[in-house]
Amino acid sequence: MLELLQAAVHPVNIVYTILLGIALVYWTSVIFGIFDIASFDIDIDVDVDIDIDVDVDADAQVSGGFIANLLQFFNFGKMPFMVVMSFLNLFQWVIALPANHYLGHYATMFALGAILPILAVSLLLTKVITTPLIPLFAQLDTHEEPVEYVGQTGIVTLSPSRKQAGQAKVIHNSNTLIITIRVPKHAELPKRGDEILVIAQAADKTSYLVEKFLSETEFSEF
């Protein structure tokens, strides 16, 4: 037990131990009712701060979409964020301690080189463990009333194109929600930071048709 404690607080393992400690504090807080299980949920929203030209913006959208899809592949966004992170932190800790002890002999260079392999294996194990839990958390959320987005305004966070969807954030009951947006044919394409109006749900039922929102001042100019 003493050897395990010494290994856990060794400099090459301390980051993994701290992350696992944060997860343990979170679950203790949930048990005692301090936090809700979804208190630290985040939306998968990739902000792209590049407004140079059309080609660069298109490349940024592809990159942002890839990252969002990668996170969703590992079940981020499909269930409470801290549930996924807790499993990830646990697997990293369980793998890192014996790896750095038996294989690396606590060598700093070995520990640094092992970060990405440990993360990759931990992500795969996390996906395997959490995938069967997704339906359970989906049932837990059924008591929430569906959000009516049509008629609401929002801010574009990922610019859409004619062929590719974008993203926008909408404020609903003081909560920031991220929706997938598409632009009707012949409508003006909004850019990141523009205010949009949700006009309808798209045919795929997972995204929404939007148009650039005009303020009263802008509307009066027409």
What does this molecule look like?
With 222 residues, the protein is α+β, with helices and mostly antiparallel strands. It has 2 domains: 104 residues, no CATH class; 61 residues, Nucleic acid-binding proteins (OB fold (Dihydrolipoamide Acetyltransferase, E2P), Beta Barrel), CATH 2.40.50.140. It has 8 helices and 5 strands, in the order αααααααβββββα. It has a 5-stranded mixed β-barrel with strand order 1-2-3-5-4. The radius of gyration is 22 Å and the shape is elongated. About 5% of the residues have low confidence.
Give the spatial strand order of the biggest sheet. 1-2-3-5-4
Q: In which range does the helix fraction lie?
A: 40-55%
Question: Major β-sheet, in short?
Answer: 5 strands, mixed, barrel
Number of strands: 5
Secondary-structure map with pairings?
Layout: H1 2-8, H2 14-31, H3 54-73, H4 81-103, H5 108-113, H6 115-130, H7 134-140, E1 153-158, E2 166-172, E3 175-182, E4 195-201, E5 208-212, H8 216-220
Parallel strand pairs: 3-5
Antiparallel strand pairs: 1-2, 1-4, 2-3, 4-5
Helix pairs in contact: 2-4, 4-6
